[in-house]
Write a structure and sequence with these properties.
Length: 222
């Protein structure tokens, strides 16, 4: 296994085509790329050559370097690690906290037909008239910020009886095997450490939950 600095050296050579053919690279050039001295760059090359990760040939027009199969293998391992980090195929976020009482407005808003109809069409269920509120534990607040980047479902606002009701966005989630959705009104009254959920069932009753009881919400993503 090569050191991190040697791996950066291999990467710099590979980016110049060193995995395909011999490429001209001077110690001065490599030192500039790696932000180090030519002497240090030369030592890196020698260490990689000794380790069988590259070959060097000296020609009249300069030093030419080729990355060996061993060198390619080290780069492929690094690539595989980054692939696991950035090209995952689905997963889940867990948000933990405690049950808290809301402001009492959820029952009214979730009883409005334009909202109910859109939730049924877009979220797959008609919400129970009321919301379930969770105060997030400190460790889940960074996770709450991450789910902002997921694909939320837009719920359009509307005007009824001379009053304007704002847009809402929803994100499918679950508590155990109970389907639910996190909702964020356009003009939310809740702080960042609070989740407001809707569900086709009365969550407090189904869970037998009261204020301060622990609860965990699961959000799956592609």
């Amino acid at each position: 296994m090569v050191e991190a600095e040697d791996l950066q050296c291999l990467k710099a050579i590979a980016l110049r085509g060193g995995c395909r053919e011999p490429v001209f690279i001077s110690s001065n050039m490599l030192g500039n790329v790696l932000a180090t001295s030519p002497q240090t760059a030369s030592r890196r090359l020698k260490a990689l050559e000794t380790g069988g990760h590259l070959t060097r040939s000296i020609r009249p027009d300069g030093q030419f370097i080729t990355i060996t199969r061993n060198g390619e293998d080290e780069l492929r391992k690094e690539y595989a690690d980054y692939t696991r980090i950035f090209e995952h195929h689905g997963g889940r976020y867990l948000l933990s906290g405690t049950v808290v009482s809301g402001l009492g407005e959820g029952k009214y808003y979730m009883s409005l037909e334009p909202y109910r109809k859109q939730f049924q069409e877009k979220m797959g269920f008609t919400p129970f008239p009321g919301t379930f509120n969770i105060r997030l534990a400190a460790g889940s607040i960074p996770v709450r910020k991450k789910i902002d980047a997921l694909d939320w479902v837009p719920i359009a606002g509307f005007t009824a009886e001379g009053r304007t009701f704002g847009d809402v966005k929803g994100l499918a989630c679950r508590i155990g095997d109970i389907p639910a959705a996190i909702i964020v009104p356009g003009r939310t009254h809740y702080p960042d450490d609070t989740l407001e959920l809707i569900s086709p069932v009365a969550l407090r009753e189904r869970l037998g939950a009261k204020d301060s009881d622990p609860v965990t919400v699961e959000v799956e993503y592609d």
